[in-house]
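Q: What changes when 1-O-alpha-D-glucopyranosyl-D-fructose is included in the input?
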Amino acid sequence: MKSRWYQNAVVYQIYPRSFCDSNGDGIGDLNGITSKIPYLKALGVDAVWLSPCYASPNDDNGYDISDYRAIMPEFGTMADWERMIAALHENGIRLIMDLVVNHTSDEHRWFVESKKGRDNPYSDYYIWRDGTGADHRTPPNKWGACFGGSAWEYCEERGQFYLHLFSKKQPDLNWDNPKVRQEVADICNFWFEKGVDGFRCDVITYISKPENLYGAPFSSTVVGPNWKKYIRALAEASWDRYDTLIVGEATGIDFDRAAEITDEREHLLDTLFHYEHVAQVPVCRHSQQSTNLRRFKRVLFRWQTLPQASWPAVYYENHDQPRSIPRFAPSGALRERSAKSLTASLLFQRGTAFVYQGQELGMTNAPFREEDYRDIQAVNQIRATRSRPSARLEMPFLLRYLRRYSRDHARTPMQWSGAPNAGFTTGNPWLMVNPNYPQINAAEQQDRDDSVLNFYRRALSIRRVWIDLIRDGSFEPVDPKNKNVMAYARRLGDRTLLVLCSLSPKKSSVRIPAEYRTGDAKLLLGNLEQSPVLREKTMLAPCQCVVFAIGG
Ligand code: TEU
Ligand code: CA
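A: The predicted holo structure follows.
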């Protein structure tokens, strides 16, 4: 039975490889996470979403799973995992695991068997097709893989192509096979019985492929023909039997589709991550702050209008995205102020809020050089560009692009302290530590009252007090066309929260309608000593944010 506890929740995402290394091998691990539970509790989060920690050859850092019921040895043992979840639960923190079932690793036992031929029990676990053309060596369609090249790989052993939407070490599962669907339900139930509280479902919108793949357009695999049928059956066989949060990663989704597949009467997903506000914009020379605030607001405010029966998930960062600073707000001298302003703009929206590790410290993108990247996406792009005759011309563009968008920016080790390697490891970190760790780290922020970390703690405790209004209140854009300030009001009965967040390095004004200027506004949260007086034209300092309570 579902209590929908997640509607009140703030979820903290942990990328285990980069969070905390307990044994000095340079790789974060489960015991490292357990050691930081007091930190998470003091921060005030309700749940943790753990990126994959299952057995994996790590072609894509655990998003290529070779055994769904085993822990990756680099991260620890099942006993470590059991200690971790017990400690989280003792501290009132739930655990959301990552469910990666669009594809497995090519080293999964199922695939090893499947590629052997057409008549073994696993033959139909994956998407195999004959090639076309005279020699049958042309792929069935023109789909490209997310990490480069064709989405089809020819397998000599079986004499057929298999589909892989991501790397060729990530073959797509065949969800049209009922045995595969049963395997997925069994995996979910295995972990629910061990106590997990939900799943974040990796690229779940891609699982149902069009019937005829020959010449099919790629769009036909986003919420494909049997998607609802398969997901509803999975909910019945597993998800709905426990008190879960099921959040789908919904690459390629649009608003109407999202409203449909998160409608609680449909018994599909509880909520989903859309990608509209993190769509990449062309890299131009001058600014790292790549986002046009008006567009950003237009997108976010629209998603706030999801119908009552649906439920939004709100986030600015995750392990695939660059840091929100400098992406959405100014860096440099204004970094701390902008981190707080972004925080306030996020945490009072309707929806389950997701915070990515290090976001609560205002961690930023890293100054990577060509040889520093580790992510399969960046590494493949660099290799492909290097091999082209035009490499000398193209490489600077690619490097400029990666400096802004590489997934590695989010994955640099968590900055715990000013000790070597930011206190993340006593060994050699698997990925470069951001050299700004002496300035940006948890230890330094812990006891400094005006730190980003303490602002998060304060914001989260205010959110707790106002949770009824934040969960159920109306969402009202304020001065929506404003180019510098993100402003909105939330209202329930006679109580209102007014949230004003400048994301501009300039002094800005914001128009406040009379209904909010009733004279009894009480300041709940702000990032500067001085708070502005609410007027028709209210002035805000660069990157200033304020949250007022009005009425009630
Ligand atoms: O990501 C799916 C996805 O399509 C993108 O967000 C992708 O990361 C893209 O390359 C961004 O530029 C999910 C996981 O979050 C990601 O880490 C995995 O690599 C991917 O699925 C495959 O499992
Ligand atoms: Ca380790």
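Observations recorded in class: The longest helix spans residues 178-193.
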